Amino acid sequence: MDRILDGVHFDIDDRPALTAADGYEAFGIEDPRITGIDDTYYINYVAVAASGVTTCLASTRDFKSFRRHGVIFHPENKDVVILPQRIGGQYYALHRPHSPLFRKNDIWIAESPDLLCWGRHRHLMGLRDGSWDETRIGAGAVPFRIDEGWLEIYHGADRNSRYCLGAVLFDGEKPWEILARSKRPIFEPQAEYERAGFFGHVVFSCGLLFEDDMLKIYYGAADTVTCYAELPLSDVRAALKA
Amino acid sequence: MDRILDGVHFDIDDRPALTAADGYEAFGIEDPRITGIDDTYYINYVAVAASGVTTCLASTRDFKSFRRHGVIFHPENKDVVILPQRIGGQYYALHRPHSPLFRKNDIWIAESPDLLCWGRHRHLMGLRDGSWDETRIGAGAVPFRIDEGWLEIYHGADRNSRYCLGAVLFDGEKPWEILARSKRPIFEPQAEYERAGFFGHVVFSCGLLFEDDMLKIYYGAADTVTCYAELPLSDVRAALKA
Protein backbone atom coordinates (compact mmCIF):
# COMPACT_ATOMS: atom_id res chain seq x y z
CA MET A 1 0.00 0.00 0.00
CA ASP A 2 1.30 3.44 -0.84
CA ARG A 3 2.02 5.75 2.03
CA ILE A 4 -0.35 8.67 2.39
CA LEU A 5 1.85 11.71 3.02
CA ASP A 6 -0.83 14.19 4.00
CA GLY A 7 0.31 15.05 7.55
CA VAL A 8 -2.84 13.49 9.00
CA HIS A 9 -2.47 9.75 8.38
CA PHE A 10 0.59 8.18 10.00
CA ASP A 11 2.43 4.88 9.89
CA ILE A 12 3.71 4.50 13.43
CA ASP A 13 7.06 2.75 13.87
CA ASP A 14 7.24 -0.27 16.15
CA ARG A 15 10.02 1.26 18.21
CA PRO A 16 10.59 4.81 19.49
CA ALA A 17 13.18 6.89 17.65
CA LEU A 18 14.77 8.00 20.92
CA THR A 19 14.59 6.43 24.36
CA ALA A 20 16.15 7.30 27.72
CA ALA A 21 19.87 6.59 27.43
CA ASP A 22 21.81 8.03 30.36
CA GLY A 23 21.59 9.17 33.96
CA TYR A 24 19.99 12.51 33.11
CA GLU A 25 17.16 10.64 31.38
CA ALA A 26 16.61 7.92 34.00
CA PHE A 27 12.90 8.69 34.54
CA GLY A 28 12.20 9.34 30.87
CA ILE A 29 12.29 11.87 28.04
CA GLU A 30 9.36 13.87 26.69
CA ASP A 31 8.02 16.92 24.86
CA PRO A 32 10.44 17.06 21.90
CA ARG A 33 10.62 20.19 19.75
CA ILE A 34 12.32 19.91 16.38
CA THR A 35 14.06 22.79 14.59
CA GLY A 36 15.42 22.31 11.07
CA ILE A 37 18.58 24.34 10.38
CA ASP A 38 20.34 23.82 7.03
CA ASP A 39 20.37 20.03 6.48
CA THR A 40 20.11 19.04 10.15
CA TYR A 41 17.17 18.63 12.51
CA TYR A 42 17.86 19.61 16.12
CA ILE A 43 15.63 17.88 18.65
CA ASN A 44 15.50 19.34 22.13
CA TYR A 45 13.59 17.41 24.75
CA VAL A 46 12.88 17.32 28.45
CA ALA A 47 14.90 14.76 30.42
CA VAL A 48 13.81 13.77 33.92
CA ALA A 49 16.04 12.16 36.54
CA ALA A 50 16.66 12.39 40.28
CA SER A 51 19.26 15.06 39.50
CA GLY A 52 16.50 17.32 38.14
CA VAL A 53 14.45 18.27 35.09
CA THR A 54 16.75 19.36 32.26
CA THR A 55 16.56 20.03 28.54
CA CYS A 56 18.84 17.96 26.31
CA LEU A 57 19.73 18.19 22.63
CA ALA A 58 20.01 15.58 19.90
CA SER A 59 20.42 15.98 16.14
CA THR A 60 19.69 13.95 13.04
CA ARG A 61 19.70 14.30 9.29
CA ASP A 62 17.57 11.29 8.44
CA PHE A 63 15.58 10.42 11.58
CA LYS A 64 17.31 7.03 11.53
CA SER A 65 20.58 7.80 13.27
CA PHE A 66 20.69 10.38 16.07
CA ARG A 67 23.54 12.14 17.81
CA ARG A 68 23.20 13.25 21.43
CA HIS A 69 24.71 16.56 22.56
CA GLY A 70 23.98 16.43 26.30
CA VAL A 71 22.26 18.82 28.67
CA ILE A 72 21.81 22.32 27.21
CA PHE A 73 19.64 23.83 30.01
CA HIS A 74 20.30 22.94 33.66
CA PRO A 75 17.52 22.13 36.20
CA GLU A 76 14.75 23.10 36.22
CA ASN A 77 14.05 23.95 32.63
CA LYS A 78 11.38 22.85 30.14
CA ASP A 79 9.56 24.11 27.07
CA VAL A 80 12.64 25.06 25.09
CA VAL A 81 12.14 26.01 21.42
CA ILE A 82 15.05 26.95 19.17
CA LEU A 83 14.46 29.55 16.45
CA PRO A 84 15.25 28.18 12.97
CA GLN A 85 17.43 31.13 11.89
CA ARG A 86 20.45 32.91 13.31
CA ILE A 87 19.88 36.58 14.06
CA GLY A 88 22.98 38.77 14.11
CA GLY A 89 25.08 35.60 14.04
CA GLN A 90 23.52 34.09 17.17
CA TYR A 91 20.98 31.35 17.71
CA TYR A 92 18.01 32.11 19.96
CA ALA A 93 15.82 29.89 22.12
CA LEU A 94 12.83 30.45 24.32
CA HIS A 95 13.01 28.52 27.60
CA ARG A 96 11.03 28.14 30.80
CA PRO A 97 13.08 28.03 34.00
CA HIS A 98 11.23 27.34 37.22
CA SER A 99 11.86 29.69 40.13
CA PRO A 100 10.36 28.17 43.27
CA LEU A 101 11.43 31.06 45.50
CA PHE A 102 9.12 33.44 43.70
CA ARG A 103 6.73 30.81 42.28
CA LYS A 104 7.62 31.81 38.75
CA ASN A 105 7.08 29.76 35.61
CA ASP A 106 7.87 32.42 33.02
CA ILE A 107 9.29 32.39 29.51
CA TRP A 108 12.87 33.62 29.03
CA ILE A 109 14.99 33.98 25.90
CA ALA A 110 18.66 32.99 25.56
CA GLU A 111 21.25 33.18 22.82
CA SER A 112 24.00 30.82 21.71
CA PRO A 113 26.91 30.73 19.29
CA ASP A 114 26.74 26.95 18.77
CA LEU A 115 23.33 25.57 19.97
CA LEU A 116 25.13 23.85 22.89
CA CYS A 117 26.05 26.74 25.20
CA TRP A 118 23.34 29.28 26.08
CA GLY A 119 23.55 32.62 27.85
CA ARG A 120 22.55 36.29 27.89
CA HIS A 121 19.29 35.14 29.45
CA ARG A 122 16.49 37.69 29.35
CA HIS A 123 13.06 37.53 30.93
CA LEU A 124 10.54 37.66 28.13
CA MET A 125 6.99 37.23 29.39
CA GLY A 126 5.31 36.48 32.68
CA LEU A 127 2.08 35.14 34.11
CA ARG A 128 -1.12 37.22 34.06
CA ASP A 129 -3.02 37.12 37.30
CA GLY A 130 -6.68 36.19 36.92
CA SER A 131 -6.13 35.12 33.32
CA TRP A 132 -6.13 31.74 31.54
CA ASP A 133 -2.30 31.86 31.77
CA GLU A 134 -1.99 32.79 35.45
CA THR A 135 0.00 29.89 36.94
CA ARG A 136 2.38 28.66 34.25
CA ILE A 137 3.32 29.35 30.67
CA GLY A 138 5.78 27.74 28.28
CA ALA A 139 6.69 27.84 24.62
CA GLY A 140 4.88 25.28 22.49
CA ALA A 141 5.71 25.08 18.81
CA VAL A 142 8.95 26.34 17.28
CA PRO A 143 8.42 30.02 16.39
CA PHE A 144 7.94 30.80 12.70
CA ARG A 145 8.16 33.97 10.67
CA ILE A 146 5.16 35.93 9.47
CA ASP A 147 5.35 39.41 7.95
CA GLU A 148 5.14 41.16 11.32
CA GLY A 149 7.82 39.12 13.13
CA TRP A 150 8.16 35.78 14.93
CA LEU A 151 4.90 34.08 15.86
CA GLU A 152 4.92 31.72 18.83
CA ILE A 153 2.04 29.47 19.93
CA TYR A 154 2.52 28.93 23.65
CA HIS A 155 0.59 27.16 26.37
CA GLY A 156 -0.72 28.59 29.59
CA ALA A 157 -2.52 27.13 32.58
CA ASP A 158 -4.87 28.63 35.12
CA ARG A 159 -5.28 27.82 38.81
CA ASN A 160 -7.35 24.74 37.88
CA SER A 161 -4.52 23.44 35.65
CA ARG A 162 -6.63 23.96 32.55
CA TYR A 163 -4.20 24.27 29.64
CA CYS A 164 -4.97 26.45 26.61
CA LEU A 165 -2.93 27.79 23.70
CA GLY A 166 -2.17 31.48 23.17
CA ALA A 167 -0.25 33.51 20.61
CA VAL A 168 2.61 35.95 21.06
CA LEU A 169 4.44 37.99 18.43
CA PHE A 170 8.13 38.93 18.77
CA ASP A 171 10.15 41.44 16.81
CA GLY A 172 11.79 39.82 13.77
CA GLU A 173 15.24 41.26 14.43
CA LYS A 174 15.03 41.66 18.21
CA PRO A 175 13.18 38.55 19.36
CA TRP A 176 13.56 39.65 22.99
CA GLU A 177 10.97 42.36 22.30
CA ILE A 178 7.28 41.45 22.41
CA LEU A 179 5.03 43.20 19.92
CA ALA A 180 1.67 41.62 20.84
CA ARG A 181 0.20 38.88 23.04
CA SER A 182 -3.30 37.43 22.78
CA LYS A 183 -5.51 38.35 25.70
CA ARG A 184 -7.69 35.28 25.25
CA PRO A 185 -6.67 31.76 24.25
CA ILE A 186 -6.58 31.03 20.53
CA PHE A 187 -7.41 27.38 21.27
CA GLU A 188 -8.90 25.72 24.35
CA PRO A 189 -10.03 22.26 25.48
CA GLN A 190 -13.63 21.84 24.30
CA ALA A 191 -14.03 18.45 22.63
CA GLU A 192 -14.79 15.43 24.79
CA TYR A 193 -11.30 13.95 24.16
CA GLU A 194 -9.72 17.23 25.30
CA ARG A 195 -11.76 17.44 28.46
CA ALA A 196 -11.57 13.83 29.70
CA GLY A 197 -8.49 11.61 29.96
CA PHE A 198 -5.38 10.98 32.03
CA PHE A 199 -5.06 14.73 32.70
CA GLY A 200 -8.25 16.40 31.54
CA HIS A 201 -8.84 19.90 30.19
CA VAL A 202 -5.48 20.09 28.49
CA VAL A 203 -4.38 21.06 24.98
CA PHE A 204 -0.58 21.18 24.67
CA SER A 205 1.39 21.58 21.44
CA CYS A 206 5.03 20.81 20.68
CA GLY A 207 4.85 21.51 16.94
CA LEU A 208 2.90 22.83 14.00
CA LEU A 209 3.16 23.39 10.27
CA PHE A 210 2.54 26.81 8.78
CA GLU A 211 1.36 26.46 5.17
CA ASP A 212 -0.87 28.63 2.98
CA ASP A 213 -1.62 31.05 5.83
CA MET A 214 -2.91 28.14 7.89
CA LEU A 215 -1.57 26.93 11.25
CA LYS A 216 -1.69 23.13 11.22
CA ILE A 217 -1.33 22.33 14.88
CA TYR A 218 -0.36 18.96 16.34
CA TYR A 219 -1.20 18.77 20.01
CA GLY A 220 -1.73 16.45 22.92
CA ALA A 221 -5.23 16.37 24.42
CA ALA A 222 -5.91 15.40 28.04
CA ASP A 223 -2.39 13.84 28.13
CA THR A 224 -4.03 10.90 26.38
CA VAL A 225 -4.32 11.34 22.61
CA THR A 226 -2.52 13.24 19.86
CA CYS A 227 -4.73 15.53 17.79
CA TYR A 228 -4.65 17.84 14.82
CA ALA A 229 -6.37 21.18 14.28
CA GLU A 230 -6.25 23.87 11.62
CA LEU A 231 -6.42 27.53 12.51
CA PRO A 232 -6.27 30.35 9.94
CA LEU A 233 -3.53 32.91 10.48
CA SER A 234 -6.20 35.59 10.17
CA ASP A 235 -7.84 34.28 13.37
CA VAL A 236 -4.50 34.46 15.21
CA ARG A 237 -3.85 37.98 13.91
CA ALA A 238 -7.28 39.01 15.15
CA ALA A 239 -6.55 37.53 18.59
CA LEU A 240 -3.27 39.45 18.76
CA LYS A 241 -5.06 42.70 17.95
CA ALA A 242 -8.03 42.21 20.27
CA MET B 1 49.83 57.09 55.94
CA ASP B 2 51.17 54.33 53.74
CA ARG B 3 48.80 51.57 52.79
CA ILE B 4 49.52 48.22 54.39
CA LEU B 5 49.22 45.67 51.59
CA ASP B 6 49.27 42.50 53.65
CA GLY B 7 45.86 41.06 52.74
CA VAL B 8 44.66 41.46 56.31
CA HIS B 9 44.36 45.21 56.84
CA PHE B 10 41.94 46.96 54.47
CA ASP B 11 41.02 50.51 53.54
CA ILE B 12 37.32 50.23 52.80
CA ASP B 13 35.94 52.49 50.07
CA ASP B 14 33.07 54.80 50.93
CA ARG B 15 30.95 53.43 48.10
CA PRO B 16 30.39 49.90 46.80
CA ALA B 17 32.16 48.97 43.57
CA LEU B 18 28.98 47.43 42.12
CA THR B 19 25.36 48.01 43.09
CA ALA B 20 22.07 46.68 41.76
CA ALA B 21 21.56 48.23 38.33
CA ASP B 22 18.72 46.57 36.44
CA GLY B 23 15.55 44.53 36.77
CA TYR B 24 17.38 41.25 37.36
CA GLU B 25 19.10 42.83 40.37
CA ALA B 26 16.09 44.62 41.88
CA PHE B 27 16.38 42.95 45.29
CA GLY B 28 20.17 43.12 45.39
CA ILE B 29 23.42 41.46 44.34
CA GLU B 30 25.65 39.28 46.50
CA ASP B 31 28.31 36.58 46.81
CA PRO B 32 30.76 37.72 44.09
CA ARG B 33 33.48 35.36 42.91
CA ILE B 34 36.36 36.83 40.94
CA THR B 35 38.41 34.95 38.35
CA GLY B 36 41.45 36.58 36.77
CA ILE B 37 42.03 35.54 33.14
CA ASP B 38 44.81 37.26 31.22
CA ASP B 39 44.53 40.97 32.07
CA THR B 40 40.82 40.92 32.98
CA TYR B 41 38.98 40.08 36.18
CA TYR B 42 35.61 38.38 35.68
CA ILE B 43 33.17 38.90 38.54
CA ASN B 44 30.16 36.61 38.70
CA TYR B 45 27.56 37.37 41.32
CA VAL B 46 24.11 36.35 42.46
CA ALA B 47 21.31 38.71 41.38
CA VAL B 48 17.92 38.51 43.07
CA ALA B 49 14.67 39.87 41.65
CA ALA B 50 11.03 38.83 41.41
CA SER B 51 11.91 37.07 38.15
CA GLY B 52 14.18 34.70 40.06
CA VAL B 53 17.67 34.12 41.45
CA THR B 54 20.23 34.29 38.65
CA THR B 55 23.98 34.57 38.24
CA CYS B 56 25.29 37.59 36.31
CA LEU B 57 28.73 38.48 34.98
CA ALA B 58 30.73 41.71 35.05
CA SER B 59 34.34 42.35 34.13
CA THR B 60 37.02 44.90 34.99
CA ARG B 61 40.69 45.53 34.47
CA ASP B 62 41.22 48.13 37.17
CA PHE B 63 38.35 47.70 39.66
CA LYS B 64 37.36 51.29 38.86
CA SER B 65 35.29 50.83 35.72
CA PHE B 66 33.15 47.73 35.29
CA ARG B 67 31.38 46.24 32.30
CA ARG B 68 28.19 44.21 32.76
CA HIS B 69 27.57 41.13 30.60
CA GLY B 70 24.08 40.14 31.75
CA VAL B 71 22.61 36.89 33.07
CA ILE B 72 24.86 33.87 32.47
CA PHE B 73 22.88 31.28 34.49
CA HIS B 74 19.06 31.34 34.50
CA PRO B 75 16.90 30.87 37.66
CA GLU B 76 17.58 29.36 40.08
CA ASN B 77 21.34 29.30 40.14
CA LYS B 78 23.95 30.38 42.69
CA ASP B 79 27.48 29.57 43.77
CA VAL B 80 29.07 29.84 40.34
CA VAL B 81 32.86 29.76 40.17
CA ILE B 82 34.75 30.07 36.88
CA LEU B 83 38.03 28.19 36.48
CA PRO B 84 40.93 30.53 35.68
CA GLN B 85 42.24 28.49 32.72
CA ARG B 86 40.75 27.12 29.54
CA ILE B 87 40.93 23.33 29.24
CA GLY B 88 40.84 21.94 25.72
CA GLY B 89 39.85 25.39 24.47
CA GLN B 90 36.79 25.68 26.72
CA TYR B 91 36.11 27.58 29.90
CA TYR B 92 34.61 25.65 32.82
CA ALA B 93 32.42 26.73 35.73
CA LEU B 94 30.93 24.99 38.73
CA HIS B 95 27.34 26.02 39.40
CA ARG B 96 24.53 25.15 41.77
CA PRO B 97 21.07 24.90 40.19
CA HIS B 98 18.15 24.35 42.53
CA SER B 99 15.75 21.52 41.65
CA PRO B 100 12.66 21.84 43.82
CA LEU B 101 10.96 18.78 42.32
CA PHE B 102 13.62 16.48 43.75
CA ARG B 103 14.83 18.82 46.52
CA LYS B 104 18.28 18.95 45.03
CA ASN B 105 20.95 21.57 45.71
CA ASP B 106 23.86 19.87 43.99
CA ILE B 107 26.99 21.08 42.22
CA TRP B 108 27.10 20.83 38.43
CA ILE B 109 29.82 21.74 35.93
CA ALA B 110 29.30 23.55 32.61
CA GLU B 111 31.54 24.63 29.76
CA SER B 112 31.63 27.73 27.60
CA PRO B 113 33.44 29.07 24.54
CA ASP B 114 33.13 32.72 25.61
CA LEU B 115 32.27 32.98 29.36
CA LEU B 116 28.78 34.26 28.40
CA CYS B 117 27.03 31.14 27.06
CA TRP B 118 27.20 27.94 29.11
CA GLY B 119 26.20 24.38 28.26
CA ARG B 120 27.13 20.70 28.32
CA HIS B 121 25.93 20.67 31.91
CA ARG B 122 27.06 17.68 33.95
CA HIS B 123 26.10 16.68 37.46
CA LEU B 124 29.26 16.75 39.54
CA MET B 125 28.54 16.04 43.21
CA GLY B 126 25.51 15.57 45.39
CA LEU B 127 24.38 15.77 48.99
CA ARG B 128 25.43 13.14 51.55
CA ASP B 129 22.63 11.99 53.79
CA GLY B 130 23.43 12.18 57.48
CA SER B 131 26.56 14.20 56.82
CA TRP B 132 27.53 17.85 57.45
CA ASP B 133 26.68 18.52 53.76
CA GLU B 134 23.30 16.76 53.67
CA THR B 135 20.88 19.56 52.64
CA ARG B 136 22.81 21.91 50.34
CA ILE B 137 26.23 22.37 48.86
CA GLY B 138 27.77 25.02 46.63
CA ALA B 139 31.14 26.05 45.31
CA GLY B 140 32.94 28.61 47.45
CA ALA B 141 36.28 29.91 46.30
CA VAL B 142 37.47 29.80 42.68
CA PRO B 143 39.22 26.43 42.17
CA PHE B 144 43.01 26.52 42.03
CA ARG B 145 45.62 24.10 40.78
CA ILE B 146 47.70 21.89 43.03
CA ASP B 147 49.89 19.06 41.80
CA GLU B 148 47.07 16.50 41.94
CA GLY B 149 44.44 18.55 40.08
CA TRP B 150 41.93 21.33 40.80
CA LEU B 151 41.21 21.98 44.47
CA GLU B 152 37.84 23.47 45.37
CA ILE B 153 36.79 24.68 48.83
CA TYR B 154 33.02 24.36 48.94
CA HIS B 155 30.36 24.94 51.55
CA GLY B 156 27.80 22.48 52.82
CA ALA B 157 24.90 22.72 55.25
CA ASP B 158 23.19 20.15 57.43
CA ARG B 159 19.54 19.88 58.47
CA ASN B 160 20.12 22.58 61.10
CA SER B 161 21.49 24.98 58.46
CA ARG B 162 24.94 24.81 60.01
CA TYR B 163 27.39 25.79 57.26
CA CYS B 164 30.91 24.33 57.10
CA LEU B 165 33.66 24.24 54.46
CA GLY B 166 34.84 21.07 52.76
CA ALA B 167 37.42 20.21 50.10
CA VAL B 168 37.02 18.42 46.79
CA LEU B 169 39.67 17.55 44.22
CA PHE B 170 38.93 17.39 40.47
CA ASP B 171 41.00 15.96 37.67
CA GLY B 172 43.28 18.59 36.16
CA GLU B 173 42.37 17.82 32.55
CA LYS B 174 38.86 16.43 33.10
CA PRO B 175 37.40 18.70 35.78
CA TRP B 176 34.10 16.81 35.56
CA GLU B 177 35.80 13.85 37.28
CA ILE B 178 36.10 13.89 41.07
CA LEU B 179 39.27 12.38 42.52
CA ALA B 180 38.62 12.92 46.24
CA ARG B 181 36.17 14.63 48.60
CA SER B 182 36.69 15.31 52.28
CA LYS B 183 34.48 13.20 54.53
CA ARG B 184 34.59 15.75 57.34
CA PRO B 185 34.62 19.56 57.13
CA ILE B 186 38.01 21.20 56.80
CA PHE B 187 36.67 24.27 58.62
CA GLU B 188 33.60 24.73 60.82
CA PRO B 189 31.96 27.47 62.91
CA GLN B 190 33.61 27.37 66.32
CA ALA B 191 34.55 30.91 67.37
CA GLU B 192 31.94 33.05 69.12
CA TYR B 193 31.63 35.37 66.05
CA GLU B 194 30.99 32.32 63.84
CA ARG B 195 28.32 30.88 66.11
CA ALA B 196 26.33 34.02 66.98
CA GLY B 197 25.08 36.72 64.59
CA PHE B 198 22.42 37.46 61.99
CA PHE B 199 22.53 33.82 60.83
CA GLY B 200 24.57 31.85 63.35
CA HIS B 201 26.71 28.75 62.87
CA VAL B 202 27.81 29.73 59.39
CA VAL B 203 31.20 29.94 57.69
CA PHE B 204 30.89 30.74 53.97
CA SER B 205 33.74 31.61 51.62
CA CYS B 206 33.68 33.32 48.22
CA GLY B 207 37.45 33.57 47.81
CA LEU B 208 40.91 32.62 49.01
CA LEU B 209 44.56 33.08 48.19
CA PHE B 210 46.85 30.11 47.76
CA GLU B 211 50.45 31.09 48.56
CA ASP B 212 53.39 29.12 49.92
CA ASP B 213 51.32 25.94 50.36
CA MET B 214 48.91 27.88 52.57
CA LEU B 215 45.18 28.48 51.97
CA LYS B 216 44.41 32.06 53.04
CA ILE B 217 40.66 31.95 53.31
CA TYR B 218 38.37 34.98 53.39
CA TYR B 219 34.94 34.05 54.65
CA GLY B 220 31.74 35.39 56.08
CA ALA B 221 30.87 34.33 59.63
CA ALA B 222 27.30 34.19 60.96
CA ASP B 223 26.27 36.38 57.97
CA THR B 224 27.60 39.27 60.08
CA VAL B 225 31.37 39.74 59.83
CA THR B 226 34.12 39.02 57.30
CA CYS B 227 36.97 36.91 58.61
CA TYR B 228 40.32 35.50 57.61
CA ALA B 229 41.85 32.11 58.37
CA GLU B 230 44.99 30.27 57.27
CA LEU B 231 44.94 26.56 56.62
CA PRO B 232 48.00 24.58 55.47
CA LEU B 233 47.56 22.61 52.25
CA SER B 234 48.91 19.58 54.10
CA ASP B 235 45.83 19.66 56.37
CA VAL B 236 43.52 19.75 53.33
CA ARG B 237 45.43 16.91 51.69
CA ALA B 238 45.05 14.87 54.86
CA ALA B 239 41.30 15.57 54.93
CA LEU B 240 40.99 14.41 51.30
CA LYS B 241 42.78 11.17 52.12
CA ALA B 242 40.94 10.42 55.37
Provide a descriptive summary of the structure in words.
Two copies of one chain form a homodimer. With 242 residues, chain A is mostly beta strands. Chain A has two helices and 16 strands. The first copy, chain A, has helices at 192-195, 233-241, and strands at residues 28-37, 40-49, 52-60, 66-73, 77-82, 91-97, 107-112, 117-125, 136-139, 144-146, 149-157, 163-170, 178-181, 203-211, 214-221, 225-232. In chain A, the strands form four sheets. In chain A, strands 9, 10, 11, 12 and 13 form a five-stranded antiparallel sheet that branches. A four-stranded antiparallel sheet of chain A has the order 1-2-3-4, with no helix packed on it. A four-stranded antiparallel sheet of chain A has the order 5-6-7-8, with no helix packed on it. Chain A is globular, with a radius of gyration of 17 Å. Chain A starts with 27 loop residues before the first strand and ends with a helix. Chain A binds chain B through residues 23-24, 50-54, 69-77, 95, 97-102, 104, 106, 108, 110-114, 116-123, 126, and chain B through 23-24, 50-54, 69-77, 95, 97-102, 104, 106, 108, 110-114, 116-123, 126. Strand 8 (117-125) of chain A pairs antiparallel with strand 8 (117-125) of chain B.
The total beta strand count of chain A reads 16
| Largest sheet: number of strands, sense, barrel closure of chain A | 5 strands, antiparallel
Beta-strand content of chain A: over 45%
Q: Which two protein chains have the largest interface (Cβ within 8 Å of the partner's Cβ), and how many residues from each?
A: A-B, 40 and 40 residues
Question: Cα-atom Rg of chain A, whole angstroms?
Answer: 17 Å
First-to-last CA distance of chain A: 48 Å
Structural class of chain A: mainly beta
How are helices and strands ordered from N to C of chain A?
EEEEEEEEEEEEEHEEEH
Number of helices of chain A: 2
What is the 3D shape of chain A?
A: globular
* Proportion of helical residues of chain A: under 10%
Low-confidence parts of chain A, pLDDT < 50 over ≥5 residues?
none
Query: What multimeric state do the chains show?
Result: homodimer
Mean pLDDT score of chain A, rounded?
96
